[in-house]
Specification:
It is built from six helices and four strands; from the N terminus they run E-E-E-H-E-H-H-H-H-H. By secondary structure, it is α+β, with helices and mostly antiparallel strands. It has one domain. Strand 1 and strand 2 form a beta hairpin. The chain starts with 10 loop residues before the first strand and ends with a helix.
Length: 134
Amino acid sequence: HGSEHRVKDYYVGTENFGVVGFPGILNNCKTCHKDGTYELPLGDNVLGSTMNTGPSSDPLDWAVQENHKVATPIAAVCSSCHDEPLAIAHMKQNGGASFDTTQTDINNWLVVETCQFCHGPGGIKDVNEVHGIE
């Protein structure tokens, strides 16, 4: 969404998506999202974002999603723009975020994000207020 705000370039394969801007009004989430699908707290059905499909060179192992390393859902969203080291450290230390867990661990409540306490509705740094969400 806000690749121009990133510190690091955003590559997928050989393509740098850090130069691709959002083609609309950035703080109007309803351009693409339905009400209740983009605000904190996120629903329990939101999955982590795959970061690594594993060390195996066997493509059949890649299909075993339980082995995939994922970023926790809120951290995946926030770090897509807020990628500077201090922000990542904050997500890990204060929010319980992980960039190296599994969906199984998330589903079993072994990794729990707590971001909504400060960044959810009425929090000291409510995402909607900080970003002027419409």
